[in-house]
Each structure stands twice: as C-alpha cells, then as structure tokens.
Amino acid sequence: MNAEDYMRLALELAAEAAAKDEVPVGCLIVNPADGTIIAAAGNLSQHGGDATDHAEILAIRAACRKLGQNRLRDMDIYVTLEPCTMCAAAISFARLRCLYFGAYDTKGGAVANGVRFYDQPTCHHRPQLKGGILEAECAKLLQDFFKKKRRKNTSENI
To answer: Which of 21, 102, 137, 149 is the S-S candidate for 80 at Cβ 3.0 to 4.6 Å?
Structure first.
C-alpha cells in the first residue's frame, strides 16, 4: 500500500466519526517496514467526555498499548487533517518517524500553519512531514460536515 491508500483508510475512519456527529478526522499508525496497521482511530472528543480524544491521541495510545512501549520509533502516522498543537506534541513525544496528513488547517493546525511546533527550538523530535495527501477529499469531508452543522444550527434557531 502507498500513502494514498493509507489516507483513504483514514478517510473511512473520519467518515465514521462524522456519522457519530464528531469532527471527521481519522488516523492510522503504520509500520512502514511491513505495511501493518498498528492502530486506527477517529475523533471522539465531542461525545467521549474527554477534550483530548483527538484521533491522533487515541491512535497513539492504542499503538503504545499494543506494542507495550511508550515510543513509536520507526512508525508512521497518517491523519486526515493537519494536527493541532496538542497532537503535534504527542507525535513528537511518541517519536513517530513520519507524519502524513491530508488537509491543511489554517486555523488550528500547528505543523505547516500556526505555531509550527516542529520548527520550535524546544521540540526534541521532528518527524518527517508529508502534507496534502488526498487534500481535496480530506478537506471536502470536513467542509461538508461543518456546512451541515451550520444548516442544522440555523434551522434550529428559526
């Protein structure tokens, strides 16, 4: 499988999150040596009762549990949206090898936008970055989700 194949799987997880009325973000942790998917998650922060239940955090936690270690060296992470500061930090702390992401996030992103976490001198580990993978599809899923939310909120206020 290639980066686009993994991102398509992450998009499926994002669509599942949207179906649960969660912000549609999906994430995979992959061992690039053999292509094994170690962990997969979609956002749960809206209904899971925990503001930190972003797809990246959930996938990192699951991968660490599965592998019995607190570092994910030599593993890659695929996420449908540019990570926020919290998730960028978690990716760094987990020592993930490469971050692949789909849509850029000019408001909340912290990798190519915003604080650019990996460019900071206090960042101890900088993963390789590959953004814009299936960017249009990833962005469309998010845009459609928020358009639907706005329409729903507008009709509830009438």
So the answer is: 102
CB-count exposure of residue 131 (10 Å: 0-12, 13-18, 19+): middle
E-strand ranges in the chain read 26-31, 36-42, 76-81, 98-103, 128-130
Band of residue 9 on the pLDDT scale cut at 50, 70, 90? very high
Tens digit of each residue's pLDDT (9 = 90 or more) over 42-54 = 999 988 789 999 9
Catalytic site residue from 56, 135, 137, 156: 56
The per-residue DSSP string of 60-98 comes to HHHHHHHHTSS--TT-EEEEEE---HHHHHHHHHTT-SE
Rounded Cα distance between 19 and 54, Å, is 16
19 has pLDDT over 70: yes
Whole-number Å distance between alpha carbons of 130 and 132: 7
3-state SS class at 136: helix
